[in-house]
Amino acid sequence: MKIPAPALAVSAMLAIQLGAALSTHLFDALTPAGAAWLRLSIAAALLMAITRPAIRSIPRRTLLSTVLLGTATGLMTLMFMEAIARIPLGTAVAIEFLGPLGVAAIRSHRRLALIWPALGLVGVVGLTQPWLGELDVAGLLFALAAAVGWGSYIMLTHRVGSQLDGFGGLAISLSVGAVVIAPFGIANAVGGLTPTLAAQSLGLAILVPLLPFTLELLALRRMPIAAFGTLMALEPGIATVLGLAILTQIPNPLQIAGIVLVISAGIGAQQANTSMERQTPGKNSRNEGLEPLFP
């Protein structure tokens, strides 16, 4: 029985956010930075062993793009881990989502497109409720830094994906990401590691990023890019539900409204870009044009 492509995309999102929620249980022993480094390192080692990319045969410019992608990936992972150690998972993902929304506005080249990141920002204000005086400023700043990393990740993934086939580029970028954040996490990861934590970290590395990347790749081969991007706009909502179920992070009504606004902004931004793509001649809606807005 063939699994429907939308189910694969949703499963990828579930894997990403489930991995994030479960990673919080490693923070006491390994710290957020240590958990981030260990997860990236294991995933990179597994992919490098499987793909064995011929690094010497990669053109210098392409290799530079891959290194930049790895840097963005590592810093995004580190900042996000530090964020969810301080603020609820759903809130962190919603704030991080401002990165893709900003990329969408830049790509559209239309002033009207600014309404979507603005709507997302209103939703984030509803989530964080700064007027209550309970906002964790450090958590907010880490999430905003992760948003910048996610936006950079999107643009660099498009560049690397058009230059390298297969999984070799991912293996190299994950390796670079692990090296970049090693100064922040390697000491804590090694110092707090036990056989049980090592097994858990291995499972989490498979859960994120290996499993979701594979699921996304399979989904994209069988569904239009626009539909995929629209589905990915649901990710803040999925993060909120998993934060409630696993971490008992209960949002209040205003925070739920904020999540709805962020999701609406994501769907609106993707649909706006889809409309622009249809107006551009010579583009195939399934395999060309705009790459997924929310990878």
From TrEMBL:
Disordered: region residues: 273-295
Polar residues bias spans: 273-284
Keyword Transmembrane set for record: yes
All residue ranges annotated as the EamA domain in the record: 138-264
Record keywords: Membrane, Transmembrane, Transmembrane helix
Coiled coil start-end: none
Similarity field: Belongs to the EamA transporter family.
Protein name: EamA family transporter
Species whose genome carries this gene: Antrihabitans spumae
